[in-house]
Amino acid sequence: MSERSKETKIEIKRWEDSDLELLFQLNAPEMMEHLGGTENNEQILKRHQRYLQIEDKGCMFSIISFPEADAAGSVGYWQKVWNDEYVYEIGWSVLPSFQGKGIASQAVKALIEKVKAERKYKYIHAFPSINNSASNAICRKLGFNLISECEFEYPAGSFMRCNDWCLELE
User: Fold this and answer.
1) pLDDT digits over 122-131, tens only?
2) If exposure means fewest CB atoms within 10 Å of the residue's CB, which of 7, 28, 144, 170 is most exposed?
C-alpha cells in the first residue's frame, strides 16, 4: 500500500475558544494564497468570534488528526443566498504538514453528512479559486457538480475568480 493511499484518521469537532491558535496557524501566507491574503490580528480575532457564534446559520469545526490528536485544519458551513436561493456554502483549510493525506476530503465528507441530516436546504456550494487545484479536486472527488466559473467576493470588498461547485443534499 502506498503512503498516498493510507488515509489519516480524523474527527471534526465544533469550534471552541481553544481553537484560536489554530486559526492563527491557518492565516499563514501559503494558506491564504487563494483567499485574498492574510488577515491582521484584529481580523483573526473577529473571525474567531464569528466561528464561535455561527450556530444559527451554520457551524465551524476544527479537524483533528489521529493518532496524535493534533489540530490539522478547519471545515465549516454557513447559509447564504446564491442566485436568489438559500443554500449552504462550505469551506475548508488544512495545514501544510497535514496536506496530501486525505484529511480535507474526509472532513468535507463528514461535514456533508451532518448537513444532510439537517434537511434544511437542497444544495451546498463550494467556491474554490480557479487556481486552487487541490480544493477543486476535492469537489470533483466528492461528487459536486461544476456549475461555472464566477466572480466571488472574498474577503469583503475583494473579488476573485472561483469555480461554483454544487452538491444536491436530498
Assistant:
1) 999 999 999 9
2) 170
pLDDT at 18 over 90: yes
Distance, in Å, from the CA atom of 19 to the CA atom of 154, rounded to the nearest integer, reads: 22
* Cα 156 from Cα 170, distance rounded (Å): 31
Give the orientation angle of helix 103-118 with respect to helix 133-141, to 10 degrees.
50
Domain boundaries, the chain: 9-168
C-alpha cell recorded at residue 106? 474526509
The three-point CA angle 157-122-148 to 5° equals 50
Greatest distance between any 2 Cα atoms in the chain: 47
Question: What pTM was computed for the model?
Answer: 0.88
What is the Cα–Cα distance from 54 to 34, expressed in whole angstroms?
Answer: 23
Q: Using one digit for the tens of pLDDT, what is the confidence trace for 60-85? A: 999 999 888 889 999 999 998 888 99
